[in-house]
Amino acid sequence: SIALLLMQDGSNPDLAVLFASLSSYCAPQYPLPLLLTADILEKRELYTEANQAYRKISPDSYAYYTAQFQIGKNLIKSENYAEAEKIFRKLYADYPPNPDILTNLGEVARINHKYAEAAKFYQKAIDSYPGDSVAEVWPLYFAIGISYSAAGNNELAEQYLRKVLSLRPNRMTQNHLGYILLLQNKNPEEAFELIVSAYNPNGGDGTVTDSLGWAFYKIGDYEQAVKYLEKASDQAPSEAVIYDHLGDAYWQVGRK
């Protein structure tokens, strides 16, 4: 209880871990102190140390599933995707399939560029939700759309992103759908409107600013394209595609 109070206060996580560890020492068979210790370590992004705590929870404990699931999540955050996949595939085999397991299997597959497999897992996750669970399923439709886009299947990507906009309109989806339409040279007016709707002049998202610059490029307003693409390159200096677009815009305005 002292450890929990200290964690909730947030001012001394080291002391919270100390009291949780003392609790585990007094009753090593009791999983809650280990879960609390791991949770504190996760919040500090100490994922390896958190997993060490989770692995102390025995397979016969009621907390074993939670511990294994969090180990898998922490492995993803640590970019250890191969081990994460092993964990989630074992959970998928040992427990009744649920949306959380399926979603994480989809994430690992997408990160490993297995886009068709990722889309299948995401779809299974969607199918396992009740029909009115919009808040849970729209991010999965978005993930399917992004997976198909990464695989170069922009038609299917467009289909799923439009589904997202019908469920839960948001700037992120507007930007992605607008950009996909630009890639297909399709409905330029709609693409421009979507990207303008997604753009926040006070925001710092270089990918959205890049989309707006590229939209101006596609409609032939090269001066405006340069303006926004230069801004995008400042906001996201590690995104190579922005410099590719900016180079094209410079060429069009004669800045060879």
Distance between the termini: 67 Å
Share of helix among residues?
over 70%
Structural class: mainly alpha
Q: Which stretches are low in confidence, meaning pLDDT under 50 for 5 or more residues running?
A: none
Using only C-alpha atoms, the radius of gyration works out to 23 Å
β-sheet strand percentage? under 5%
Number of helices: 15
Instruction: Give the strand tally.
Output: 0
Q: How would you state the average pLDDT, rounded?
A: 93
The quaternary organization reads as single chain
Major sheet attributes: none
How would you sum up the global shape? elongated
N to C succession of SSEs: HHHHHHHHHHHHHHH
Protein model, in words:
The chain is mostly helical and 256 residues long. Helices cover 75% and strands 0% of the residues. The protein has 15 helices and no strands. The chain has helices at 2-9, 13-26, 32-43, 47-54, 64-77, 81-94, 99-111, 115-127, 134-150, 154-167, 171-183, 188-198, 206-218, 222-235, 240-252. The longest helix has 17 residues, at 134-150. The chain is elongated, with a radius of gyration of 23 Å. The protein starts with a helix and ends with a helix.
What attributes characterize this protein structure?
single chain, elongated
Give the SSE layout.
Elements: H1 2-9, H2 13-26, H3 32-43, H4 47-54, H5 64-77, H6 81-94, H7 99-111, H8 115-127, H9 134-150, H10 154-167, H11 171-183, H12 188-198, H13 206-218, H14 222-235, H15 240-252
Helix pairs in contact: 1-2, 2-3, 3-4, 4-5, 5-6, 6-7, 7-8, 8-9, 9-10, 10-11, 11-12, 11-13, 12-13, 13-14, 13-15, 14-15
